[in-house]
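Possible regression after last week's pipeline update?

I re-ran a chain I had predicted before the update to compare outputs. Posting the input and the new output here so someone can diff against the archived version. Not blocking, just want to make sure nothing changed silently.
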Amino acid sequence: MPETTSIMHENVRYRADTHIRIHSNTQTDNYAPHWHTPIELLMPTENHYTAYIANKTYVIQPYEILLIAPNVIHRLEAPPSGHRYFIQADLTILKDIYGISQILAFVGPATHFTPTNSPNIYMQLKKLYLDICSDYFKEVRPPGNADCVSGNSNSLLEPAAYARLMTMLSLIGQNYIESKTANTVSPGRRQDYINKFMYVCEYIDEHCTEDLTLEEVAERSGFSKFHFARLFKEFMNISFYKYVSLKRIETAEDMLRNPHITVTEIAMASGFANSSAFIRMFKQINGCTPSEFRKMHDTTLELPPEAVPIQT
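New output (post-update):
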């Protein structure tokens, strides 16, 4: 698809009776800046592939994995030839599972997994990814003498895919936590440390629209204010107040999809003191104003469906 200067919303067409879509892609055209609500996991199998996300460039080599978080604007650039898979899956159906939002906070807008930077989990992630694709494109022979049909009609396709996806996310979360605590927390205290921070993140997620203070949340964690602020930034890669702002913006994004709620009303309902502070933070995080975000959601980018059996 030729590039354009506008940022578009991709309306993902999931496979029938599922919340999953996998593209088996050989296109040489580039994808213009766009975003979508499902998570996306990209894996080239022939030649590299390039993604531009949040002012960073990711060059993904064959069988490496790029995870792109939901609602993140990204641009994709294809080489002259090659093949890659895009797994897109709706995570809103998993929103009530404890830890999912925290894992997504760990990975940020995007994370690139390679044998070098993720040696403890890379091979497991690669196998789980390819197993999801293999099941999705498996040929199924109906009863009798009918010809094979492309696509797995097994009603267990979706639960099997989500089970593997959940395993991937769990591995990513556990690997992140272990890397963050390896040099700062003794093995005997590590699980207690992890539990406290998972609890703190869950508490912030649930109460982000309220007037949360560093002192209050630090007290809930059992740490002093200054110790908690240092540990939180070390653990989450951002400050406590930036994390609260991110969660407030996520709340606002959901409300912006309703055209009947004003930007001022959304600012107050998502926890900001006024609309100016809300607009300033929204643009800092998303690169666009709330009104521009609302317009993007009205524009759809349809990607051509492809379904090529996985090469073994």
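Follow-up from reviewer: compared with the archived run. The chain is about 45% helix and 20% strand. Marking as no regression found.
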